[in-house]
């Protein structure tokens, strides 16, 4: 064994769920020694799960077999962890001991998408990480806030048209348009107005990519290397369209950067990356820049929009919480054109609703890592290349962690004695991950969610938020976990 994770962290599950230390004298278990569902010959457990509900099946197995178990999915035997302390330790051990799956990186490249900060590893990741973190720093977001407010006003106008026509709103699709428009201006210095159009916009191409990636990650056979189905041709068309749009972004940015003053203080992520790539010995290529642009579009669109969708859905089912959020917005905020970042920071109840939503409905309920070298996690020996699947929600909805864990109770995040202290609760839920690779866009995501939700509460009455069958919203997993088919009907507030 080349390395042992150096932590003495213990959890309520006892030694089996502890991070093993170099001083440990007990022999580590092998992955095959862990309990788990019986695997079928050749296909393992792959045919026992629906890839769009696999998180729910894994959570059910975890309740049966415990916080550490073994499964075999898509021809890959992996360790599955549901204990938050072990999860945090594994996330903090990146990038030296764990990385994102090399299989994911290979498939993304095969799709025609260059590596960005999401998939880059090692020194290459460090170069990109410093640059991306700086671009998403709070001060940079504050500078961009007037443009974010303008994007929010376009969403308001779109929903007003729907209210006037008494038309249902595809909640997830509209919020994806909002987040694409928001991140495009900040990251690329380009106004991509998808909210004013129903045509063939960039958002519709982006929407194909996460489902296709999830499907290929879970495929038993990489059929697309030999046979291209209609969905594969549509994917290629969408990736090509997005890459062409990114090429235009980059060309336009280079024209703007002919201004020496702009090169000294690039105002957006794309221009900052281009300036950095031009530095001697930077190690950055145009392909790296393009990969980060693609990453920002994908990650900035899907994850934030999905959290917003789930929060609106949950608030619509909890009228007392909804009314409290509306009262707070009415008390704190004036007309949309006057909103400032500091005003939104005073929306304590709305922020608690966001955290509670992400606890119950995390955008990424599963996260997969790969061991970089032989290592030991929670007393289990993992050879280099072994996969570890992290169940991010399990402890967040456990009664021993959160009183009334299945209930939507935002007050538990206000530190008023209704639950865990907020800092402790965040360490359990980890909606943005943990460790060196924590989500760099978390501040922007929280601000976007507050903006859209506050606009909705301030401007509209919600007539209904509906699901296709009238039951609880289904959790549909396509790399991110979206509420399936949710629609909303609005009317203007008097």
Q: Topology of this structure?
A:
Elements: E1 29-30, H1 54-65, E2 68-73, E3 76-81, H2 84-92, E4 98-99, H3 102-111, H4 122-135, H5 138-164, E5 169-170, H6 171-188, H7 202-206, H8 209-217, H9 230-256, H10 260-264, H11 269-278, H12 286-316, H13 319-332, H14 341-344, H15 348-360, E6 366-371, E7 375-377, E8 380-382, E9 387-391, H16 422-429, H17 442-459, E10 460-466, E11 475-478, E12 480-483, E13 487-492
Parallel strand pairs: 1-8, 3-9
Antiparallel strand pairs: 2-3, 4-6, 5-13, 6-9, 7-8, 10-13, 11-12
Helix pairs in contact: 4-11, 5-6, 5-17, 6-12, 11-12, 12-15, 12-17, 13-15
Keywords:
494 residues, alpha+beta, five-stranded mixed sheet, three-stranded mixed sheet, 13 strands, 11% strand, globular, disordered N terminus
Structure characterization notes:
The protein has helices at residues 54-65, 84-92, 102-111, 122-135, 138-164, 171-188, 202-206, 209-217, 230-256, 260-264, 269-278, 286-316, 319-332, 341-344, 348-360, 422-429, 442-459, and strands at residues 29-30, 68-73, 76-81, 98-99, 169-170, 366-371, 375-377, 380-382, 387-391, 460-466, 475-478, 480-483, 487-492. It has a five-stranded mixed beta sheet. Strands 1-8-7 form a three-stranded mixed beta sheet, with no helix packed on it. The protein is of the alpha+beta class. Strand 11 (475-478) and strand 12 form a beta hairpin.
């Amino acid at each position: 064994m080349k390395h042992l994770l150096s932590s003495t962290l213990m959890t309520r599950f006892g030694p089996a769920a502890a991070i093993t230390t170099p001083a440990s004298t007990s022999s580590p278990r092998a992955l095959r020694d862990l309990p788990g569902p019986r695997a079928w010959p050749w296909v393992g457990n792959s045919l026992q799960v629906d890839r769009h509900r696999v998180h729910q099946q894994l959570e059910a197995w975890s309740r049966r077999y415990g916080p550490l178990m073994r499964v075999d999915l898509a021809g890959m035997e992996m360790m599955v962890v549901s204990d938050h302390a072990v999860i945090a330790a594994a996330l903090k051990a990146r990038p030296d001991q764990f990385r994102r799956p090399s299989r994911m990186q290979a498939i993304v490249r095969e799709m025609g998408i260059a590596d960005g900060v999401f998939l880059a590893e090692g020194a290459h990741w460090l170069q990109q990480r410093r640059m991306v973190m700086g671009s998403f720093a709070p001060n940079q977001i504050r500078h961009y806030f007037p443009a974010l407010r303008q994007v929010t006003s376009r969403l308001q106008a779109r929903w007003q048209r729907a209210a006037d026509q008494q038309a249902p709103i595809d909640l997830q699709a509209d919020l994806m348009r909002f987040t694409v428009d928001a991140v495009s201006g900040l990251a690329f210095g380009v106004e991509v107005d998808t909210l004013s159009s129903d045509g063939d916009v960039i958002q519709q191409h982006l929407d194909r990519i996460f489902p296709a990636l999830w499907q290929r990650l879970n495929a038993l056979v990489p059929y697309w290397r030999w046979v291209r189905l209609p969905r594969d041709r549509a994917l290629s068309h969408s990736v090509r369209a997005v890459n062409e749009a990114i090429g235009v972004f980059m060309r336009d940015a280079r024209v703007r950067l002919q201004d020496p003053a702009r090169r000294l203080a690039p105002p957006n992520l794309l221009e900052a990356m281009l300036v950095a790539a031009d530095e001697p010995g930077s190690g950055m290529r145009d392909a790296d820049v393009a990969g980060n642009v693609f990453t920002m579009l994908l990650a900035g669109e899907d994850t934030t929009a999905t959290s917003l969708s789930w929060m609106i859905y949950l608030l619509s089912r909890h009228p007392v919480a909804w009314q409290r959020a509306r009262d707070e917005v009415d008390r704190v905020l004036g007309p949309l054109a006057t909103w400032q970042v500091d005003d939104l920071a005073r929306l304590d109840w709305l922020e608690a609703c966001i955290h509670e939503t992400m606890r119950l409905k995390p955008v990424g309920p599963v996260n997969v890592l790969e061991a970089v070298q032989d290592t030991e996690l929670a007393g289990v020996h993992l050879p280099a290349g072994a996969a570890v699947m992290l169940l991010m929600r399990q402890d967040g909805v456990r009664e021993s962690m959160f009183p009334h864990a299945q209930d939507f109770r935002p007050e538990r995040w206000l530190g008023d004695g209704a639950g865990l202290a907020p800092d402790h609760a965040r360490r359990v839920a980890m909606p943005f991950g943990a460790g060196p690779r924590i989500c760099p866009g978390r501040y922007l995501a929280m601000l976007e969610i507050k903006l859209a939700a506050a606009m909705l509460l301030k401007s509209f009455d919600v007539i209904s938020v509906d699901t296709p069958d009238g039951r609880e919203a289904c959790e549909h997993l396509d790399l991110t976990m979206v509420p399936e088919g949710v629609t909303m009907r609005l009317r203007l507030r008097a």
